[in-house]
Amino acid sequence: MQPLENITAMMVFARVVETLSFTEAANSLGLSKSFISKEIAQLEIRLGVKLLERTTRRMAVTEVGRAWYQFCARALQEAQGADAFIRDYHQQPAGNLSIIAPVNYGRRYIVPPLNAFVAQHIHVQVDLDLTDRPVDLQHDRYDLAIVVGQTPPAAAFHLLSPIEWGLFAAPDYPAAQTPVTHPQQLPRHDYLLFRGPAHTLSLPFRQGKQKLNIDVHSRFRINNSEALLSAAIAGAGIAYLPCYITRAAQRQQQLVRLLPDWRMDDYYSYLVVRQPERPRALVAMFCQQLQAALAPADCFSP
After folding, report:
1. pLDDT digit of tens for each residue in the chain (302 aa)?
2. What CATH class has 3-90?
3. Which of 25, 23, 31, 34 is nearest to 69 (CA)?
């Protein structure tokens, strides 16, 4: 017996039990009474058990039928939920969407797709929490979380984009005026480092098969990359930053990248979806739009 053979019959049987009538079950499912009767008869043959006791006057559910109905009812409920999900997906979405994302990545990469989504769907309300604190999606009850890290989150996720890090300094900073040509020259300089998930005093470098870790001294540590960017532009030291944050400053010649031929840390952004009992079409729709919006764009430096 193949389980797939019984899916339609399970739903038919569930409705027969709920109505105790082939006629009413047929009407509610949009099927003929003869189809219902034949489906139940074939089902009992396949299962090798009696599910219903039928006479000319009444219908009763057997003990094994009542037990098997619990599985059938859940199958029917899931099928109805699946149909409702698709209907909602094709209709004008409505409802609340709650998202949590890191401050700077969220501002640059999550807010623009959200702006387009809200403008496109006038019945949608969005709550966006921009914060760099750790996220517990189930406890915090957000629909979606954007997580940035070097390793994937424990929960189910979609990879959004890579994020390369590098060293940057103002054009008049000594390391820029007399260019650094090798990571081993770095310890003599002062550094602006990020205090938080990416905090480090040992900077990693990769070039081909070479791998180095260079210990550097930081006189100024800040817990916000935009503030680090400002300090670097002001000439306070060499900043270790995500490359995407420095793009505008590089175009305006406010910063230069040091050792661009050496790779450093690679982080990634991940989209984590809370797994509710009933998936929501609104959440699925925005996830698809966000992934499409970020797919052609990378967060690597130009």
Report:
1. 455 567 788 888 888 888 888 888 888 888 888 898 888 888 888 888 898 888 777 888 888 888 888 888 887 777 776 776 676 666 667 788 999 999 989 999 999 999 998 888 888 889 999 988 877 766 778 889 999 988 888 877 888 988 999 999 999 988 777 778 899 988 888 888 876 444 457 889 999 888 999 988 887 888 888 899 999 999 999 999 999 999 999 999 999 999 999 999 888 999 998 876 666 778 888 888 898 888 755 444 34
2. mainly alpha
3. 25
Q: Where are the domains of the chain?
A: 3-90, 95-156+268-294, 162-266
Instruction: Give the count of beta carbons closer than 10 Å to the beta carbon of residue 66.
Output: 12
Do 194 and 267 touch, CB atoms closer than 8 A?
no
Which candidate, 114, 103, 133, places its Cα nearest to that of 227? 103
Whether 95-156+268-294 shares its CATH topology with 162-266 is answered yes
DSSP-assigned letter for residue 187:
G
The rounded distance, in Å, linking the Cα atoms of 60 and 112 is 60
Between 3.40.190.10, 3.90.1570.10, 3.90.1170.30, 3.40.50.2000, what CATH number should domain 95-156+268-294 receive? 3.40.190.10
The answer to whether the beta carbons of residues 51 and 64 sit under 8 Å apart is: yes
With CA atoms as reference, report the closest residue to 13 among 225, 1, 49, 103: 49
Task: Considering the domain delimited by 162-266, tell me its CATH architecture.
Answer: 3-Layer(aba) Sandwich (3.40)
